[in-house]
Amino acid sequence: MILFILAAFGLGWLFQLLAACSPFWLAAAMWTPALGALLELKREGKLKPRPLGEEWPGLKALYKATAPAAFWLALSILLAYFVVGPSPYEPPPTVRAVFFVAFVEVPGWVVYATLPLAVIAPFINALLATFGEELGWRGYLLPRLAERIGWAWASVVVGVVWGVWHAPAVLVVGHNYGRPWCLECLAVFVLLTVPVSFIHTWAYLKYGVWGAAFLHGAVNGWAGAYFLIYHHTFGDLAWSLTGLYGAATLAATAAVFWLLTNPTARRSKLTMPGWDSDG
Length: 279
Hints:
two-stranded antiparallel sheet, disordered C terminus
């Protein structure tokens, strides 16, 4: 486990600190959990190459893995009208959007016009970044913890670790909140990553690491739709989608998908894409 920690936290935190200079380092940081997982499996002698296609469930199945993200977004937007209230502002003339991993100012109408492209966000995000995180968090750390404490408690632990892993990006760069050195922001973010960890466990147990990567890509890519409507809530620790409101709707989403599908009964053993792992 020491190699995994050194790669994910040592190298990952270094890259997140460098993201203050260039956002491209944030994308690089997302691959450090995968590096740690592969180093550990190599040390354990459990890496046995096999065809990558054996673990590819197909795009149709992978898009099914994004169902919790769609449910969460719809629930958050619908409830926000009654809880947060109608947006008091007109759509902003410009929007600080993400182009690959760089932040750029673009006209608001451009963002609305390109909304249909959100359908490919899970695919693009998975290939560029989120697969790296999921190979580490869900492909390596989660099943090893689940062997000892069960899937539910393992999801809690991974959720806390996952949230703390973002500490340099949240505290130094102001990631998701726009307020550097905000300890409350980090605490709220950890409250957010615990319920979101459950829906990623759900995706992993049903669709493997690629399913979790597509779900992660959908969460990252589709959450912006909420801020197009309630952009005045960005950075708000109570009513933002990355605040307590988002954590509450994520918890509701996780409860729905866990209670309705009983994901822990579906697969007893999973392997990492492209590798046989006896762990």
